[in-house]
Amino acid sequence: MSAEATNPEARPEALPELRRRGRTRLDLRRLGRAALLGPTPRDRLPDAIGHVAEAHRAHHPDADLSVLRRAYLLAETSHRGQMRKSGEPYITHPLAVTLILAELGAETTTLTASLLHDTVEDTEVTLDQVREEFGEEVCFIVDGVTKVEKIDYGAAAEPETFRKMLVATGNDVRVMSIKLADRLHNMRTLGVMRPEKQARIAKVTRDVLIPLAERLGVQALKTELEDLVFAILHPEEYEHTRALIAAHAGERDPLPAIAGSVRSVLRDAGIAAEVVVRPRHFVSVHRVSLKRGELRGSDFGRLLVLVGENADCYAVLGELHTCFTPVISEFKDFIASPKFNLYQSLHTAFATPEGYVAEVIVRTRQMHRVAEAGVVALGNPYTTPPAADQVAAADCDEERVDPTRPGWLSRLLDWQQSAPDPDTFWDVLRSELAQDREITVFRADGGTLGLPAGASCIDAAYAQYGEAAHSCIGARVNGRLTSLSSRLSDGDTVQLLLAHDASSGPAADWLDHAKTPAARIAVSSWLESHPDGAGPAAAAPRAPLSVIGARGGGGNAVADLPDATVRLAGCCTPVPPDAVEGFVVRGGAVTVHRVHCATVAQMRAVGRAPVAVHWRATADCRVTLLAESFGRPHLLADLTEAIAREGVEVVSATVEPPVEQRVRHSYTLQLPDAAGLPALMRAMRDVPGVYDVSRA
Questions:
Q1: How far is CA 456 from CA 219, 410, 492, 630, in A?
Q2: CA Rg value for the chain
Q3: Quick one: CA dihedral 182, 188, 190, 192, positive or negative?
Q4: What is the pLDDT of residues 72-108, one digit of tens each?
Q5: What angle is formed at CA 493 by the lines to CA 465 and CA 413, rounded to 5 degrees?
Q6: Which string of b and e fits 536-552 if b means at least 16 CB within 10 Å?
């Protein structure tokens, strides 16, 4: 199934036919009548699913079709007598859904479950019967697609059905593949319903199903769903776009000639490639018209270049940029950096001598298959490992090889457990799916986190630690300290700092910076359960807090000047056994500095003569330490307690006002033994929230 096609004369209800250029339109009414003609001989497939078998064998030549025959017979007999609102026998619906998936390359288990996907919901067939006849796998998929009973859930039936489907998709992604194909066929036949019901179904498709199709990489379904929704919800814009395409059909299309030039260039370079013109679908034409205003002939399509190997993609890119004038702003490399939905391609554009700008997509044939069918193209990843070419195309990242738990789906499954209210779940689901880009950040332990674009350190904390992130007090991004509100970029390395204080909790302003539903739900729940707010208070300017004790003089330092008063310099706070020098200052006192202190160089520069200084044999000394930390309750008490445990006296302490939740402490301390200074500094660094301790 092609993901992009246009027809200037198409009506909204005729859009599905546009997807089948080069293939005869199926007569579902005829298939429905064939399904009612009675049993089929056991030695051949029923005529009604011959098209399904043909499409399936095109992708899986060795597939066993006997299970499809049994599934079709059960579906046909159980749905016999049921009719669709369009007047067709109901069996035409599971047949059409199965054909859509067969064309995408779905494996036999998916097609079997697709034929049976409405039997448990709409007939007397039970899950136990499906399990007994077709096995646990098919039973699980059918159950995942089956809606919850409206009589049990009332108005919450739709959100709870999607919740059930998404949870099942977390265990088997084929559940959502069938749901997407089911919605596509329903949208194709939506014209028989009342306009208000058409609009309601189209809105749910736009807000939930289309984003899910995008995330699962099933572009062939996504683009057709977009066109069908566009025709229903925006009829005026749709008609305008249809008129643009109709007007273009009467003009000369420059793209075939440009494609011929590209073929000639690649042929001369010895690169085996297939070059085709891909017409844009309706929504794509509409977006380009909004972006560029008046459209030219080359704006109604793109060139697709298919090659055999990854290296050939870059060879093609080099030839295009060498032989044509590239539009650098249009270049994107989704091969080196694949999208989070498995998509890989090179995108570029070049200008022709005639003034046209041609957009080009370059990919391998395997990339093309994955770009069209997404997770459906991966076959069944639950029983056998992906083929070697699939691994190469999908990268070695676990989330890309195994679609059962991509980053967005893992996040969704986590936060939905914390959103028991159906309305909350429904609103947050649509908000989550509205995020159209994902970034990957690296954890300090070497793991990775998948987050939506624009996520902050708060989102990373809850993604990594869950509710334990309530005690997060700061972060290092790419080795540099930063506030929790800092936004993360793709490829950042983030180290999250947690407090061990059980009373720590998030601040209300975290909600202003949390982007993921998991973080927002967790913070909101904590704040509701702690109305008094035990979390860190917002930073507010205040006067420095000072605790002052008796000030000493020179401590253990002795100057080689009789009767001279000796003072230890506050700029470098020397302690034994530091190498020191003294200088006579105003009043005759000798100030003692460490030899590497900047003041020593200044004194020498102005011609001051140094005075020899030595340390007494006694071991006690005085030192000033600077402690830098993240603000949290009880931090000052914990620091002074750690200092006291080392047997050190606090002479004075100063705490500066917090800036972006970071606090700077200055302590002048009297140590009983200078040898204990390293242990003291380690003890202070071990206090939760303290990230650095240094000599003044």
A1: 30, 18, 11, 17
A2: 35
A3: negative
A4: 999 999 998 898 888 888 999 999 999 999 999 999 9
A5: 35
A6: beebeeeeeeeeeeeee
Helix axis angle, 66-79 relative to 108-115, nearest 10°?
10
For residues 125 and 153, the answer to whether their CB atoms sit within 8 Å is: no
Report the C-alpha gap between 242 and 244 in whole angstroms: 5
Q: What is residue 381's predicted lDDT score, i.e. its pLDDT?
A: 55
| Residue of 369, 459, 450 whose CA lies nearest to 410 | 450
SS3 408: helix
pLDDT band for position 26 (cuts 50, 70, 90): very low
* Three-state SS letters, 354-382: CCCEEEEEEEEHHHHHHHHHHHHHHCCCC
Q: How many CA atoms, within 13 angstroms, populate the side-chain half-sphere of residue 504?
A: 22
Closest CA to 175 of 208, 220, 221, 143: 143
pLDDT at 687: 84
Give start and end residues of each alpha helix (H) in 234-295. 235-249, 255-268, 282-292
pLDDT of residue 533: 55
Q: Does an H or E element contain 583, and which? A: strand 580-584
- Model confidence band, residue 395 (pLDDT cutoffs 50, 70, 90): very low
Residue 123 vs residues 36, 81, 117, 146: alpha-carbon distances, Å: 17, 11, 11, 12
Dmax (CA) of the chain = 122
Report the C-alpha gap between 674 and 657 in whole angstroms.
30
Strands 649-655 and 662-671: antiparallel
Tokens of 185: 């066929």
| 354 residue type, one letter | E
Q: pLDDT-derived band of residue 25, with 50, 70 and 90 as boundaries?
A: very low
Q: Cis before residue 577, ω within 30 degrees of 0?
A: yes
DSSP-assigned beta bridge partners for residue 494: 443, 477
Helix axes 157-171, 174-188, angle to 10 degrees: 140
Q: What is the predicted pLDDT for the residue at 202?
A: 93
Q: Which residue type is seen at 259?
A: A
Alpha helices in 549-646 (DSSP H): 598-605, 635-645
Note the pLDDT of residue 393. 40
Which residues touch 296 (CB under 8 Å, ≥6 apart)? Answer: 356, 357
- For residues 475 and 442, give the distance between their C-alpha atoms in angstroms, rounded to a whole number: 13
- Residues 574 and 678: their CA atoms lie apart, in Å, by 14
Estimate to the nearest angstrom the gap between the alpha carbon of 96 and the chain centroid: 33
Query: Mean pLDDT over all residues of the chain?
Result: 79
Only one residue has tokens 């020899």, namely 612
Round to whole Å and give the CA distance between 515 and 518.
9
Residue from 298, 295, 278, 297 nearest 287 by CA: 295
Q: Which residues contact 104 (CB under 8 A, 6 or more apart)?
A: 1, 218, 220, 221, 372, 373, 376, 377
- 462-476 residue pLDDT tens: 888 888 888 887 888
What distance in Å separates the CA atoms of residue 368 and residue 36, rounded to the nearest whole number?
39
- What does the CA dihedral 65, 69, 72, 73 come to, rounded to 10 degrees? -170
Q: Is the pTM of this model over 0.70?
A: no
**Environment class of 33 (CB within 10 Å of its CB; exposed 0-12, middle 13-18, buried 19+):** middle
pLDDT of 563 higher than 80: no
Neighbouring C-beta atoms of residue 392, cutoff 10 Å: 14
Q: Give me the active site residues, please.
A: 121-122
Q: 342's torsion region: left (phi>0), alpha (psi -120 to 50) or beta? A: left
Q: Which amino acid is at 374?
A: G
H or E element at residue 224: helix 219-233
